[in-house]
Write a structure and sequence with these properties.
alpha+beta
Length: 72
């Protein structure tokens, strides 16, 4: 999921809901413009490959850069 910083603030405070899940999405990373997040129940049904996804996420693979600067 991709949110603007203001949208993420609204999601974080519960002002807006983005799913029926009782917990909000989890943040994967952000830059000054956007917040990248994982839906709360992306693995709810334990689909094939969910364990591999868990391993990848645990390695902190997302490095959001600033637009046009190439810096982290």
């Amino acid at each position: 999921m991709i949110f603007t910083q203001s949208e993420w603030a609204a999601v974080s405070t519960g002002t807006i809901a983005v799913s029926a899940a009782p917990i909000p999405p989890s943040e994967l990373g952000q830059n000054t413009l956007y917040v990248f997040a994982l839906p709360a129940r992306y693995n709810f049904a334990y689909p094939t490959g969910y364990q591999e996804v868990e391993t990848i996420i645990a390695g902190n693979p997302l490095h959001a850069t600033e637009v046009g600067t190439g810096t982290i």
